[in-house]
TrEMBL record:
Name this protein carries in UniProt: Copper-containing nitrite reductase
Residue positions binding Cu cation: 131, 136, 171-172, 180, 185, 326
Tagged with keyword Repeat: yes
Entry EC no(s): 1.7.2.1
PANTHER family: ALCOHOL DEHYDROGENASE CYTOCHROME C SUBUNIT, BLL4482 PROTEIN-RELATED
Residue spans of biased composition, Low complexity class: 25-41
Gene Ontology MF terms: copper ion binding; electron transfer activity; heme binding; nitrite reductase (NO-forming) activity
Main location group: periplasm
Pfam family, one: Cytochrom_C
Residues covered by the Cytochrome c domain: 388-477
GO cellular component, one term: periplasmic space
């Protein structure tokens, strides 16, 4: 960055002012927030740091450090440790993440524009890889990467002045860069404007990322990174905060009605851009790309890979609001789904009521898929019982089959056949595996009623999930009983689909 002489002189003037006064400098920039001009970064230099150095408060997602109520530039010390560790990526699925601060995304950092940040990057002694950090809020080569290459058990230090305000991504930039990012090495740093941000009731930290595992979506066990899928940009998971369910069930974000919510939404990538949307809300204000200009009344905002946005809205009526990447298969089939639960009195003049229900959310509305994990672990240990399969199948049925066949298995007259006491099912239970994996079309008769409709293949389900669901179905609602195995389902999947009418 080249600086005109006049700016250097201006900076010197501020310096002189600071030197002969023990009060914080009356910086013109503190009164007038930097406008969107080409010299905004130079206006962010409010002179040397003042007062005692401050240790930055870092937070884990979805939490955000408290606002900074300071009217002078300070020296802020940030200590961040890289930790490589195995954590769940989905129910019963784990992954070896590389993290900044032990979480994905990494710890949230908050400083004030003009602060001098003394950055300490540590790499845990039990790490296998060297790492570094590129902060998009840094003016300087590599955004800090050039000065922060850190071997396991070592620490690096560099210092930068936060010249530009905004919400910035940071990430690891050690080769192969894509792999380090894909393993979760990213987070956000907020550089507050000198006058601070407008107060709100809640601030939350949400960051999207795409993940590449050798196994399929929800395939159980420890899943290794798949470089080929990553190069092809075919993610197995697209997630908010590094884990399917990081923001659902007991982990949902919360607010009350008639409050203001600010989301700092980042996208670590490494590959996808995010069409960030909250089902049932309209963003009153968005600062796209983390920039200074605000956009209002926005439905969906595009967040580039390696970018971030600030999103604000007011809560009017209670219910579950669903955070999604509106590239919607990512939300329902790759995990990019979170919930903001808003409690408070109804306002029927704005909305008549009723929650976003399980039809919209599928099994994600089910806060607890524990039984699914228990069954997967038991299968791995070779001790899977029928009871464990039934318990797991019941939870999966709720999100998958109940939409059409209903939670009680009764179906819907003339549209969806019953699974409860179904003579069609009882006549050939094995055929059900083929129906679920391949779908079913054409005329069938169930309990004396004709159906001529289409069931799409439930190809999002794994073999063990199908086995558990059908074991639940065949042992429920006066059906004849029995058991299905993962291996049987694999065989049925490999064969040709079912025939509604026996062939003659
Ligand atoms: Cu790294």
């Amino acid at each position: 960055m080249s600086r005109p002489l006049s700016t250097v002189l201006a900076a010197l003037a501020v310096f002189a002012l600071a030197a002969c006064s023990d009060k914080p400098p009356a910086s013109p920039a503190a009164a007038t927030p930097p406008a969107s001009t080409s010299v905004a970064s130079q206006r962010g230099d409010f002179g040397p740091p003042q007062g005692e150095p401050i240790h930055a408060v870092l937070t884990s997602p979805p939490h955000v450090p408290p606002p900074i109520h300071r009217n002078y530039p300070a020296k802020v010390i940030v200590e961040l440790e890289v930790v490589e560790k195995e954590m769940p990526i989905s129910e019963g699925v784990s992954y070896t993440f590389w993290t900044f601060g032990g979480t994905v995304p990494g710890s949230f950092i908050r400083v004030r524009q003009g602060d001098t940040v003394e950055f300490h990057l540590k790499n845990a002694p039990d790490s296998k890889m060297p790492h570094n950090i590129d902060l998009h809020g840094v003016t300087g080569p590599g955004g800090g990467a050039a000065s922060s290459f850190t071997a396991p058990g070592h620490e690096s230090q560099f210092t930068f002045k936060a010249l530009n305000q905004g919400i910035f991504v940071y990430h690891c930039a050690t080769a192969p860069v894509g792999m380090h990012i894909a393993n979760g090495m990213y987070g956000l740093i907020l550089v507050e404007p000198p006058e601070g941000l407008a107060p709100v009731d809640h601030e939350y930290y949400v960051m999207q990322g795409d993940f590449y595992t050798t196994g399929k979506y929800r395939q159980k066990g420890l899943q290794p990174f798949d470089m080929e899928k990553a190069i092809d940009e075919h993610p197995t998971y697209v997630l908010f905060n590094g884990r399917e369910g990081a923001l659902t069930g007991d982990n949902a974000l919360t607010a009350k009605t008639n409050e203001t919510v600010r989301l700092f939404v980042g996208n670590g990538g490494p590959n996808l851009v995010s069409s960030f949307h909250v089902i049932g809300e309209i963003f009153d204000k968005v600062q796209p790309e983390g920039g200074t200009i605000a956009q209002h009344n926005v439905q969906t905002t595009l967040i580039p890979s390696g970018g971030a946005a600030t999103v604000e809205f007011h809560t009017d009526v209670p219910g579950s609001y669903v955070l999604v990447d509106h590239s919607i298969f990512r939300a329902f089939n790759k995990g990019a789904l979170g919930i903001l639960k808003v409690d408070g009195p109804e306002d029927k003049s704005i909305y008549s009521g009723k929650e976003v229900d399980s039809v919209y959310l599928g099994d994600r509305s089910e806060p607890n898929l524990k039984a699914v994990t228990v069954a997967a672990q038991a299968h791995a240990a070779g001790t899977l019982t029928k009871e464990e399969q039934i318990a797991a199948g019941k939870q999966l049925f709720t999100g998958t089959c109940s939409v059409c066949h209903q939670a009680n298995g009764e179906g819907l007259a003339n549209v969806f056949p019953p699974l409860a006491k179904s003579d069609f099912l009882a006549a050939d239970p094995k055929r059900a595996m083929s129906i679920v994996t391949h779908g079913l079309t054409g005329k069938i008769t169930v309990n004396g009623h004709e159906y001529d409709s289409v069931m799409p293949p439930m190809s999002q389900l794994n073999d063990d999930e199908v086995a558990n669901i059908l074991t639940y179905v065949i042992n429920s609602w006066d059906n004849p009983g029995g058991q299905f195995s993962k291996e049987d389902v694999a065989k049925a999947r490999a064969e040709a689909g079912p025939h509604a009418e026996p062939e003659h």
